[in-house]
């Protein structure tokens, strides 16, 4: 069976507390995007995992798809499968590609073997794999708290009819490094209130706490954000811990913006 794990952006991201378990409490708005990897899982005589597309440069045993498979295999004594992942969502880009791959693996294995796992059970497995993973089981706009697993579905009417432009300069940002730069503090603004305002009112009000330290380490990212604004973006910011920047425009752009050849660029109608 073939599925298409999709990317996400964060509309705002606040780090509000350091938890006793070593994780952080956050507040963010997750928004899914139709930018996808491709994942195929079929029954097989022996287990195998192969990958094409963008390189991940990690041991296949550490791939989140494999980790997700191992959780369900061990819990339910499942027979082998062959897995193939074609990677199109860049790693370390704040787009959640690895988390999506893991969540879609859980859902697909549940379907193939007719495990009939409840949503709550799948969510508990997803959280073992990563803080962003539970969102991809819901996969619709959501306000997230806790580690990111406390999800409340929301509507964002101000985005309807807008165009989203994403720019990834190929810089890999380690999530662990990014969180190490944080000094958590209680939220001073409520993201869920800000995103109900017109998009043109978000500038200067919708915070991503990671932007300051990540852009200080990688000034190129601030240059991209400024370029998006100068091109006419109503709002521009960094998604997640970076390094992808996004701009929200009133209408579609007829031509791609001019960037270095190694940059990736996407345009999405909202």
The average pLDDT is 95
Q: Extract low-pLDDT stretches.
A: none
How do the strands of the widest beta sheet line up side by side?
1-4-6-5
Q: Indicate the CATH class of the largest domain.
A: Alpha Beta
Q: What is the gyration radius calculated from CA atoms?
A: 19 Å
**How many domains, in number, for the residues?**
2
Report on this model:
By secondary structure, the chain is of the alpha+beta class. It folds into two domains: 2-152, Ribosomal Protein S5, domain 2, CATH 3.30.230.10; 156-269, Alpha-Beta Plaits (2-Layer Sandwich). It is built from eight helices and twelve strands. The strands form three sheets. A four-stranded mixed β-sheet has the order 1-4-6-5, with helices on one face. Strands 2-3-7-8 form a four-stranded antiparallel β-sheet. Strands 10-11-9-12 form a four-stranded antiparallel β-sheet, with helices on one face. The protein starts with a strand and ends with a strand. The mean pLDDT is 95.
In short:
By secondary structure, this protein is of the alpha+beta class. The protein is built from eight helices and twelve strands.
List the topology elements.
Layout: E1 2-3, E2 6-18, E3 24-36, E4 38-43, E5 48-53, H1 64-76, E6 81-87, H2 97-112, H3 119-129, H4 135-138, E7 142-145, E8 150-153, E9 163-168, H5 175-180, H6 191-194, H7 211-217, H8 219-230, E10 235-238, E11 245-249, E12 264-269
Parallel strand pairs: 5-6
Antiparallel strand pairs: 1-4, 2-3, 3-7, 4-6, 7-8, 9-11, 9-12, 10-11
Helix pairs in contact: 1-2, 2-3, 7-8
């Amino acid at each position: 069976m073939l599925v298409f794990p999709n990317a996400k952006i964060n509309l705002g991201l606040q780090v509000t507390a350091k938890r006793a378990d070593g994780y952080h409490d956050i507040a963010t708005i997750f928004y899914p995007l139709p930018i996808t990897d491709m994942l195929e899982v079929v029954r097989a005589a022996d287990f195998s995992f192969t990958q094409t597309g963008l390189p991940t440069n990690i041991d296949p045993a550490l791939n989140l798809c494999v980790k997700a498979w191992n959780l369900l295999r061990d819990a339910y004594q499942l027979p082998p499968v062959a897995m193939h992942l074609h990677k199109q969502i860049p790693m370390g880009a704040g787009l959640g590609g690895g988390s999506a791959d893991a969540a879609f693996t859980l859902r697909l294995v549940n379907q193939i073997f007719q495990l009939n796992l409840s949503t709550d059970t799948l969510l508990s497995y997803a959280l073992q794999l990563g803080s962003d993973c539970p969102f991809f089981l819901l996969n619709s706009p959501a306000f997230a708290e806790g580690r990111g697993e406390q999800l409340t579905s929301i509507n964002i009417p101000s985005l309807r009819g807008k165009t989203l432009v994403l720019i990834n300069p190929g810089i890999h940002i380690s999530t662990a490094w990014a969180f190490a730069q944080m000094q958590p503090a209680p939220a001073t603004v409520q993201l869920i209130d800000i995103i109900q305002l017109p998009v043109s009112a978000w500038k200067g009000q919708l915070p991503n706490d990671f932007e300051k330290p990540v852009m200080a380490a990688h000034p190129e990212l601030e240059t991209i954000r400024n370029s998006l604004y100068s091109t006419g973006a109503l709002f521009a910011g960094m998604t997640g811990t970076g390094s992808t920047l996004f701009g929200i425009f009133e209408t579609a752009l007829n031509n791609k913006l001019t960037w270095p050849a190694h940059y990736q660029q996407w345009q999405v109608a909202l």
